[in-house]
Amino acid sequence: MDGKPTQLDTIPDATAKDIETLLVTLARGARRVERVEMSFGAVWIKRYGTERPPVWTKAQGALAALLRQPFLRPSPYLDSKGMIDREVRRIETFAGKDVPVPRVLYSSGSALVLSDVAPTVTARLSALRKAEPAAHDDLLVACAAELGALHGKGLCHGRPHPRDFFLAGNRIGFMDFEEEPEAAMPLATAQARDLWLLFLQLVDRAAFGTETAEKAYAAWRATAPSAAETELKTMLRFLCKFLWLPRLIGRVHMSSDLRRFLAATRYLQGVLLSPRPADASKAGKDD
Q1: Does residue 140 fall inside a structural domain?
Q2: Helix (H) or strand (E) holding 113
Q3: Which band of pLDDT confidence, cut at 50, 70 and 90, is reported for residue 52?
Q4: Most confident of the ranges 34-43, 139-148, 169-178
Q5: For residues 125 and 119, what is the distance between their CA atoms, to the nearest angstrom?
Q6: Which of 50, 83, 115 corresponds to the end of one domain?
Q7: Residue 173, φ and ψ in degrees, nearest 5
Q8: Residue 155 DSSP SS3
Q9: Peptide bond preceding 119: is omega within 30 degrees of 0, i.e. cis?
């Protein structure tokens, strides 16, 4: 981690009182993610190694191998130091390609201190939802456009969600780089999964429904690699084989996660996959 901040006194504009506040907060270890007010503004502390190794990660890896579906593979599991090194490295990579990201102010073996990047896109969407629905959906389209630009630069996020995006002037920045799917699957597959994961949120949130989804997909596609779209089609062919299951479960209880899965997958299916011959035949009989 040569060249990276390792001492609290390297934080720009930090006073002796700020350093004392951070030391106390770091030692206390109250929450995994914590916002701390300083004399020069807020910073965020992210702690690592506070969670048990995820059982689901091993199960997910086994399922991906069984079904031979690379997009299901989880990012490699690392210890706390490895997680910190990965997040710092990915922040530097994104910054090196002119993508707005938080600054790493301090790093240790178990925590990172990052610059504040408020407002988040989630907060802005919440403010716009009822007051300015058109602006709300324009922001969703901008998220898709920025993700496409990111993919066009040979990057992927891994867990794209409006809460992990922030407003950076007239651009959208990215944060939370704990995932590294391209270490577990081909880059084009990771980028395709990025788009699908974003649409799980976007289709469900859009005030103007399909109209906004169409604009968003076109905005992503304008700069995203064609290989990512090809991989997205492959993903959808697999996922659509199992749409009957969430539909069946939804008859008993339609959770928000299930609703988002169905809405996004159905929409992308309609955009990217040609009707099956049986469907086309049935459609012809209805005319």
Answers
A1: yes
A2: strand 111-115
A3: low
A4: 139-148
A5: 10
A6: 115
A7: -100, 170
A8: coil
A9: yes
Co-location of 106 and 178 in the same domain? no
d(CA 209, CA 4): 44
Q: What is the CA radius of gyration of the chain?
A: 21
Six token digits for residue 122: 């989630």
Considering the domain boundaries, does residue 13 fall inside one? no
User: In terms of pLDDT, which residue wins out, 11 or 160?
Assistant: 160
Question: What is the tally of structural domains in the chain?
Answer: 2
The whole-number average pLDDT for the span 3-9 is: 54
Instruction: Count Cα neighbours of 46 within 13 Å in the Cβ-side half-sphere.
Output: 22
| CATH code where residue 37 lies | 3.30.200
- The Cα 91–Cα 4 span in angstroms is 12
Q: Which of 115, 150, 182 is the last residue of a domain?
A: 115
CA distances from 195 to 46, 76, 154, 235 (A): 26, 21, 14, 11
Please report the pLDDT score of residue 6 as a whole number: 44
Q: Which domain holds residue 56?
A: 25-115
Q: Is residue 197 part of a domain?
A: yes
Same domain, 126 and 104: no
Question: Which of 195, 270, 192, 182 lies closest to 231 in space, CA to CA?
Answer: 192
- 232 pLDDT higher than 90: yes
Q: What is the pLDDT of residue 234?
A: 95
What are 194's two structure tokens? 């990025």
CA distance 171 to 142: 8
Helices (H), the chain: 16-28, 55-67, 80-96, 121-128, 133-152, 187-205, 210-221, 226-239, 244-252, 256-272, 277-286
Whether residues 97 and 142 share a domain: the answer is no
The confidence score (pLDDT) of residue 248 equals 73
